[in-house]
Design a protein that fits this description.
Blueprint: H1 4-29, H2 32-35, H3 39-67
Helix pairs in contact: 1-3
InterPro entries: Y16Q-like
Pfam families: crAss001_48
Organism: Secundilactobacillus pentosiphilus
């Protein structure tokens, strides 16, 4: 069984990897290229953004809980 510190380390690595992808997506949404996409694709990308945001927040909550914050 993993220790809390091991789990925290893994969750932080997962969160940091997600943040990199999330940031790229967030920057893409602010581009002209995004604005030229069909509305259907814009909605799908927005749905992806929302899901990634929820996932990021969940990871942060789990980390804070394990750290006792």
């Amino acid at each position: 069984m993993k220790t809390n510190n091991q789990v925290i380390k893994e969750l932080k690595a997962e969160r940091d990897e997600l943040w990199t992808r999330f940031s790229r997506l967030d920057h893409f949404i602010d581009t002209e290229e995004y604005g030229e996409l069909p509305v259907h694709h814009q909605r799908l990308i927005q749905k992806q953004w929302d899901s990634m945001d929820d996932y990021y927040r969940a990871l942060n909550s789990r980390i804070a809980d394990l750290e006792g914050k």
